[in-house]
Amino acid sequence: MNRFAVPLALLSATVGLMLGLVLAAGGQRPGAATAALRPPDGPPIVLSAEPATGPVPLGPGIDFAAVAASVNPAVVNVDAAVRGDGRSNSGLRWRRDLTDDPGAPREGSGSGFVIDRAGYVLTNFHVVDGADRITVTLGDGRAFRADLVGIDPAIDVALLKIDAPEDLPVATLGDSDSLRAGQWVCAIGNPLGYVHSVTVGVVSFLGRKLFDPSLDAYIQTDAAISLGNSGGPLIDGQGRVVGITTAISAQAANIGFAVPISQVVPVLQQLREHGRVSRGFLGIGLTQVTPALRRALVLPVDRGALVQDVTPDSPAERAGLRPYDIIVGVDDATVTSDEELIRSISARSPGTTARLTVLRETEKRAVVVKLIERPLPESARSRDRAARDARPAVSREQGLLGLSVRDLDRATALRQQIPDGVQGVLVVDVDPAGPARLARIRTGQLILEINRRPVTSLADYRAILSTLKPGTVAAVLVFDPLSGQRVLITIVPDLTS
């Protein structure tokens, strides 16, 4: 792993306490109108060919105000909550309660963007890894509980699904393969909790290797990205998403990295159908044929993928491949670089065969290799698991709001110095991954009203709670004894199953 690049941390608060840590939480080709993925058990994921609010006007310069207005409606905030059960969550530092208890609840936030009007959302895997609850908040403020549909730790991508009552604004996916160094791009996300922040920069480098040299092809940019940008879109001058902002340099403020969208689009169908991604694997270490290597080794060609290592007991070894072999073709396609070969093999299913054209010294030969499944890199192997529904059951005691309350007794009122005339029910327990927690309701607070209806007793609370509908916003008036103030909080009641 490159020690100078780290995943973007998922923090949205208490950042000042952690300045010593730098943590932030085949593609669509030009001319293609749409790309439709057809899962067997549901409607296809339809990738939009139009920006969320219409085409972006083009002129002598790039109007990034128009670009931002076009894409912003499709950008979302992704909140993740983890119950305090000791899981490592990919080694990331999440925000916790101010306690040294390793089992304390953890919360983090990142970004994402809608890619299908039915509610499919792309974000980074490290944003939602290990979460017991995932909440997606749209640009208009509506919040939805999200299902984790699929994960691909190898390229740090996750696919979420929310159930919205109507079609959602969708980000247009572009073609990252057509990017050039020096091209203008912008990033939209939620750095440090400042939602829908827009920053502009250029593509600094293409194909940067950070974590897994055999698969990585990160876009490097100097568009400012920071803690909380993880999972947000990197956008070209025509309002098309060309990458997913993922990592930042630990040693500079203007070096950030994004997963190219051309790596993501080919795996969407597997994420939707199977919850994970399987890639073909040869078991060889490759390097590019360069002019220097050609002169030093007296190679017969000036392009291709040079074998520099063969993994023992791998498909490549069983097929007889050797170091210094040069692979110049796969099936009927010419191979001009090691990355071309890796992309071609990774796009194939394990168990299928590939016919390689190999140069050994000056002799050309055909080698047939049966592929196996590509193993995850060590950095991601411990995190790999089948995608699961991130909707833990809501306990009956905590109900739709994810909290437990009791009547306020005289002794508690005196101990907490609650003013005379303040009537409500006392919050005694909050689900660390429930809606009340997300709304920042804490134990020791008093619930005074729900949707303007007074709550003077436990019976009142239960009666009002029975009228709430999951997914609809409720306004809760809360009294906080610590500040001595009343606070109006919006909360989205949870599903009961």
Tags for this model:
mainly beta; Pdz3 Domain; 6-stranded antiparallel β-barrel; 11 helices
Question: How would you explain this protein's 3D organization?
Answer:
With 497 residues, this protein is mainly beta. It has three domains: 5-273, Beta Barrel (Thrombin, subunit H), CATH 2.40.10; 280-373, Roll (Pdz3 Domain), CATH 2.30.42.10; 399-491, PDZ domain (Pdz3 Domain), CATH 2.30.42. The protein is built from eleven helices and 31 strands. The strands form six sheets. Strands 12-13-14-17-16-15 form a six-stranded antiparallel barrel. The protein has a six-stranded antiparallel β-barrel with strand order 4-6-7-10-9-8. Strands 19, 20, 21, 22, 23 and 24 form a six-stranded antiparallel β-sheet that branches. A hairpin with a 2-residue loop joins strand 21 (326-330) and strand 22. The radius of gyration is 26 Å and the shape is elongated.
Uncertain runs? 9-40, 85-104, 381-396
Mean pLDDT: 80
Q: CA-to-CA gap between the ends?
A: 40 Å
How much strand?
25-35%
Oligomeric state of the chains in view:
single chain
The count of strands amounts to 31
Helix content: 10-25%
CATH C-level of the largest domain: Mainly Beta
Helix and strand composition category = mainly beta
Give the radius of gyration.
26 Å
Any guess at the CATH architecture of the largest domain?
A: Beta Barrel
- Largest sheet, if any? 6 strands, antiparallel, barrel
If you consult CATH, what is the topology of the largest domain?
Thrombin, subunit H
Strand order of the largest sheet: 12-13-14-17-16-15
Number of discrete domains: 3
Number of H- or I-type helical stretches: 11
User: How would you sum up the global shape?
Assistant: elongated
